[in-house]
């Protein structure tokens, strides 16, 4: 094992520790809140920008402010919901289970993050470096990255290849 393998293991361990600290409910709710925030902002920023036409003169500033405002509002709502659900979990006495499942979720997230980082690094000259070939773990994460990309819709895959 070389230093790259230790970084890979450290990334997964750190992600798992964050999962333990936050618990499954907060982790899943956080991910869902970010997806919802970006989707809501993407689909509804124009409507809010139109309402801001009296306050902000420049259309680009209006759209940006509307997008950011919608993202922040959804994130705040998600944080409030997360606090309520976590308090409910604590009251019911499922904190240990929540934390254990949070660790599993965090570890899985770490694996996905490392796989995507390895896949993206493979698009650079990095694979020609001896550190790459000497790594014990990189080949496994290349396979995982390929598998994850096989799950992506064809139009997104085509866009990724253009980058």
From TrEMBL:
Entry GO terms, CC: membrane
Subcellular location, principal: membrane
Coiled coil: none
Intracellular or extracellular location(s): Membrane
Transmembrane regions: 6-21, 28-45, 65-88, 100-122
Keywords: Membrane, Transmembrane, Transmembrane helix
A Gene Ontology biological process term: toxin biosynthetic process
Source domain of life: Bacteria
Topology in the lipid bilayer: Multi-pass membrane protein
UniProt name for this protein: CvpA family protein
């Amino acid at each position: 094992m070389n230093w790259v393998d230790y970084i890979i293991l450290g990334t997964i361990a750190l992600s798992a520790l964050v999962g333990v600290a936050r618990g499954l409910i907060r982790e899943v709710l956080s991910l869902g809140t970010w997806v919802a925030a970006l989707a809501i902002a993407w689909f509804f920023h124009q409507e809010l920008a139109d309402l801001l036409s009296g306050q902000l003169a420049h259309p680009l500033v209006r759209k940006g402010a509307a997008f950011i405002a919608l993202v922040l509002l959804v994130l705040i709502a998600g944080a409030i919901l997360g606090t309520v659900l976590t308090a409910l979990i604590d009251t019911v006495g499922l904190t240990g289970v929540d934390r254990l499942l949070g660790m599993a979720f965090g570890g899985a997230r770490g694996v996905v993050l490392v796989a995507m980082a390895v896949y993206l690094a493979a698009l650079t000259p990095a694979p020609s470096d001896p550190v790459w070939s000497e790594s014990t773990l990189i080949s496994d994460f290349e396979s995982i990255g390929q598998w994850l990309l096989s799950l992506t819709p064809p139009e997104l895959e085509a866009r990724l290849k253009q980058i």
